[in-house]
Amino acid sequence: MVLFLFGISMGEIVLLFLVVLMLFGSKKIPDLARGLGRGMNEFRRAADDIKREFSQSAEEIREDLSEMENNIRQNSHEIRDMAKDVYQEADDVTSEAVADVYKLDQPEVSFEDEDLSSDKSPDPTTTEKADADSEDAESSSQKDLKKGSDTPD
After folding, report:
1. What spans are recorded as compositionally biased (Basic and acidic residues) (predicted)?
2. Structural domain containing residue 53
């Protein structure tokens, strides 16, 4: 015997059809077939509706995600621009502070221009103090040299 479906042979299938024919009669079998066809058709429509609903909701979710992604990209560009502005301002403030500390923001003056442009005579107390400081520095360095030569090698 030939196996047809699910391990059922052709003889078993014929026997099932004869049993169905005897139970329901020849008039009821077409009605049963129509009802079975309608039920299968309705089941197929319900399955298609469910698939359609899933695909529509998936498409809505994709649109929402795409919109969120665009918002995130736009906000990230705005944040990046703000960060660049903050870094630029910080660099400006830092460079101004460094320039003020080292007095780099003042115009350069050469000594020749200073001598020619100033009509004031130098303050004698300031020059005397500077001369005394330089003499003290020279005498202390000479003392250090003498100490170094006094020590035996």
Report:
1. 117-132, 141-153
2. 33-102
Kindly state whether residue 149 falls inside one of the protein's structural domains.
Answer: no
Taking only Cα atoms into account, the Rg of the chain, rounded to an integer number of angstroms, comes to: 52
Positive or negative, the Cα torsion across 48, 49, 54, 58?
A: positive
Q: Over the stretch 97-144, which tens digit does the pLDDT of each residue have?
A: 665 556 655 666 666 655 555 555 555 555 555 555 556 655 655 655
3-state secondary structure 50-87: HHHHHHHHHHHHHHHHHHHHHHHHHHHHHHHHHHHHHH
**Contact yes or no for 9/3 (Cβ under 8 A):** yes
Distance separating alpha carbons of residues 10 and 16, to the nearest angstrom: 10
Chain centre distance of CA 64: 20
Domain count along the chain: 1
How far is it, in rounded angstroms, from Cα 16 to Cα 22?
10
Number of neighbouring beta carbons within 10 Å of residue 10: 11
